[in-house]
Amino acid sequence: IQSNRNCVLCGFISDTKTGRPVTDATVNIEHGYKAETDANGFYCLSKIHKKGNYRISIDSNEYVGIYDYREMPIVNLSGDKQVVKDFKLDKGCIIEVRVVDEANQPIEGAKLSITSLGDERNREIGGQARRRRTDNDGVCLLGGIPPSPTSYLITATSSTTILPRRKDALRRVVQRQWDYAPGKLAVILNDTKAVEFGRIILQKGVDVNGCAKYKDGIPASDLSIRAYPDWWSSNSCPEKVPIDANGLFTLRHIVPGIYRLMANIPKGDSGSIGIPVLHTRL
After folding, report:
1. Which InterPro entries match (predicted)?
2. Which CATH number fits domain 9-89: 3.30.1300.10, 3.40.50.1580, 3.30.870.10, 2.60.40.1120?
3. Which fold has domain 206-281?
4. pLDDT tens, 216-266?
């Protein structure tokens, strides 16, 4: 099979051990360009709008992709020459996760992320590119996971988008509210030949009211609060809870356990910095 001359970037993606084509890969190039492999493992990017250096990431559900920014290869692309770049990928593990409520009813649209409990930096496998949502049966297939003797932690959250808040004339900030307390599943994935199965139950939990004041007694109404379950192992954040003019706040969907409460201090136009304020059982 010959490469297509109409491609500015093309190549073959194959199994490291067997040489068989990887047929479910998506090659992502910076600035929104992407190409998918065909039945022969061949991919082709037909055009770019500006020549220059581009980083490449690869996503696959059957194989371990390339997601780490430091490991992404850089290619120089232009419209007047073709670059051929082949890749070999290792087989990954797959787990089918079903997310249900306390009545064992499926939860559609729950977001799943996965981290290795052996990673001190709590990096999600594949980052945001690998976050998946459950279908109308509450099922989500997570794949492309490196086999490991160390446990993985799969986190499930379910939220509703509320009306976007206008930040300025050019930008809207999408706000989400959790519908349930987050749930988790710890699992060891080390067999690339079998599909594992797991279930996560999301609970409604209860509201917990609190009061936040500065040392001088002034309500901390310029801050907000996040409640992290002690088991939380993700770079994403729990929902942010506002503090009112009297210093009162309400943590929603709390299930019994130990939590780390973090206060968010506004920084600049859109950022914030989190500081720990309490480690307690709720």
Report:
1. CarboxyPept-like_regulatory (IPR008969)
2. 2.60.40.1120
3. Immunoglobulin-like (2.60.40)
4. 999 999 999 999 999 998 878 899 999 999 999 999 999 999 999 999 998
Long-range CB contact pairs, 208-216, < 8 A, 24+:
208/250, 208/251, 208/254, 208/282, 209/248, 209/249, 209/250, 209/251, 210/248, 210/249, 210/250, 210/251, 211/246, 211/247, 211/248, 211/249, 212/243, 212/247, 212/249, 212/263, 212/277, 213/247
Residue 57 structure tokens: 């990431």
Give me 228's structure tokens.
């992290």
CB 102, CB 89: distance < 8 Å: no
pLDDT of residue 270: 67
Is residue 168 over pLDDT 60? no
In this structure, are residues 192 and 93 in contact, taking their beta carbons and an 8 Å threshold?
yes
Q: List, as one string, the DSSP characters of 194-217.
A: SEEEEEEE----EEEEEE-B-TTS
By the 8 A CB rule, do 25 and 89 touch? yes
Q: Which helix (H) or strand (E) holds 267?
A: strand 258-267
CATH 2.60.40.10 fits 93-201, yes or no: yes
